[in-house]
Amino acid sequence: MSEPPILALDGVVKRFPLRNAFGRRTETMTAVDGVSLTIARGEVYGLAGESGSGKSTIARMILGLTPPSEGRILLDGADIAATAGTRAFGRMVQMVFQNPGSSLNPRRTVGQSLAVPLAAHGLARQRRAERIDELLATVQLPTDFAARYPHELSGGQKQRVAIARALSVEPKLVVLDEPTSALDVSVQARVIGLLIDLGRRLDLTYLFISHDLSLMRNFAQRVGVLYRGRLVESGPTADVFTTPSHPYTRLLLASVPVISPEEAAMRPPLPMIGGEVATADQLLAGLATDPPNHSEVSDR
Ligand SMILES: Nc1ncnc2c1ncn2[C@@H]1O[C@H](COP(=O)(O)OP(=O)(O)OP(=O)(O)O)[C@@H](O)[C@H]1O
Ligand SMILES: [Mg+2]
Fold first, then answer.
1. What percentage of the chain carries pLDDT values higher than 70?
2. Which ligand 1 atom is the nearest neighbour of the CA of 53?
3. How many angstroms does the Cα of residue 1 sit away from the middle of ligand 1?
4. Ligand 1 centroid vs 42 CA: distance in angstroms?
5. Which of 13, 14, 15, 16 is the pocket-test mutation for ligand 1 (most atoms within 8 Å of CB)?
6. Which of 28, 56, 227 maximizes ligand 1 atoms within 8 Å of its Cβ, making it the mutation to test the pocket?
7. Nearest residue (CA) to ligand 1, atom 25
8. DSSP secondary structure letters along 116-141
9. For the chain, what is the domain count?
10. Interatomic CA distance for residues 212 and 227, integer angstroms
11. Span 192-207, pLDDT tens digits
């Protein structure tokens, strides 16, 4: 038998209560609307979508930080509803958050921050210092950084520490929620290079979340596009970039910089409505009335 995917989302829905100015629950909003996807061991899956499309909500559910309203999330074939919050769960899946500054405790040195998960997972005190040196080396930081405080680090260095901390318990799956969006473009490229390299060496599986599809081109084997809580596109990266099946993906791709005329020629045509490039809202209206044929909105 083939092994189960490391991660499977099966019809996952997340609703949030909306409250009025007096704090009373009025109605609910659906942030994630029936998302199903699987990620194979060792794969890099890129999840793209505009701000508010539900990316971080999906990440938080996978980490067991908030339960789905409907549907199931399976890690290695087992429903996380039963295991979230346990140490065994922490060894399976870890997350790197968007803002490297706020994810580190300002009153702890880098070494102390890295020691917390090691201690929680039962590593003996004598082994911890050695392991901290190893982790810093893994993310290409000098070992004397263990004595520094977060305010003594650059944004890129802080994000390296956050990556080291996520990797410290040797998880199988790492969820990266916009891991480089707070960084300069040059630092971004280096942190992504580091993630690719570590992923290969440590046999990691990544769920890489970003609003920026261009970052996924060279990083992810498959990508999914989230639009208002729905997964409107999912497939091998090269296919999605050259022949996207959903018009919203074409709008997203239109903002991806091209590096050569050949690439520009391969870019799919933009969805048009009445001679104008369609807006996301027009696409949604098309989606809402006629989901199976939504791609026909284009080229009219
Ligand atoms: N705890 C919450 N209570 C109520 N609404 C929430 C909560 N968390 C998220 N939302 C709403 O759910 C929707 C999706 O939010 P989410 O943070 O998942 O988006 P995102 O795709 O990560 O956006 P961004 O790119 O800006 O980080 C938004 O409309 C947001 O306001
Ligand atoms: Mg987010």
1. 84
2. 21
3. 38
4. 28
5. 16
6. 56
7. 51
8. HHHHHTT--HHHHHHHHHHHHHHTT-
9. 1
10. 14
11. 888 888 899 889 999 9
| Residue 270 pLDDT grade (very low, low, confident, very high; cuts 50, 70, 90) | low
Q: What is the mean pLDDT of residues 20-26?
A: 79
Which has more pLDDT, 258 or 225? 225
Give the pLDDT score at 298: 34
Q: Whose CA is nearest to atom 12 of ligand 1?
A: 31
Q: Work out which ligand 1 atom sits closest to the CA atom of 18.
A: 4
pLDDT number for residue 283: 63
List all residues whose CB is within 6 A of at least one atom of ligand 1: 16, 31, 49, 51-57, 211
The residue to which tokens 């979230």 are assigned: 84
Q: Does 293 map to a domain?
A: no
Per-residue pLDDT at 295 exceeds 60:
no
Q: How many CB atoms lie within 10 A of CB 154?
A: 12
Q: In this structure, what CATH number is given to the domain that contains residue 226?
A: 3.40.50.300
pTM for this entry: 0.85
Cβ–Cβ under 8 Å, residues 162 and 104: yes
Answer yes or no: is 149 within a domain: yes
Q: What is the pLDDT of residue 187?
A: 79
Six-digit token string for 20: 């009025």
Where in the sequence is the domain holding 77, given as residue range(s)? Answer: 7-268
Residue with tokens 């942030």: 31
